[in-house]
Amino acid sequence: MNTAFILMAQYGAKAIIPIEDVCRDYFAPLTLPVLLRKISTGDIAVPLVRMEASQKTAKGVHLVDLATFIDERREAARKECEQLTGLRR
Questions:
Q1: Are 59 and 13 contacting, i.e. CB atoms less than 8 angstroms apart?
Q2: Per-residue pLDDT tens for 57-77?
Q3: From the centroid of its chain, how far is CA 4?
Q4: pTM for this model (two decimals)
Q5: What's the pLDDT at 89?
């Protein structure tokens, strides 16, 4: 299964997904300000795209970057499950 294709279907083939949508769909119950702070401090490793240099500009996450983040989190969860249960999938 290709995560990027699923995200394209979910977000109507947008290259840049608005950060508000990413927050709501993948980082609940974090609020938008908390998510932005965690991204800026490196606690959440998702590159934030700003459409211009201004702080008030639209912000988003590139679809491929979000897909990569999701896939990395899935792999980490799979490894943790294997360590806890001893089962390989």
A1: no
A2: 999 999 999 999 999 999 999
A3: 11
A4: 0.89
A5: 65
- Crossing angle, helix 63-85 and helix 3-10, to 10 degrees? 130
Please report, as a single letter, which amino acid is at residue 76: A
Residue partners of 60: CB distance under 8 A and separation at least 6:
16, 17, 18, 19, 22, 48, 49, 51
Q: CA-to-CA distance for 6 and 63, rounded, in angstroms? A: 10
CA distances from 79 to 26, 34, 40, 66 (A): 21, 28, 27, 20
* Residue 17, beta-bridge partner list: 61
Tens digits of residue pLDDT in 1-25:
799 999 999 999 999 999 999 999 9
- Take residue 69 and report the two structure tokens written for it: 């983040």
Q: What does the alpha-carbon distance between residue 21 and residue 34 come to, in Å, rounded to a whole number?
A: 14
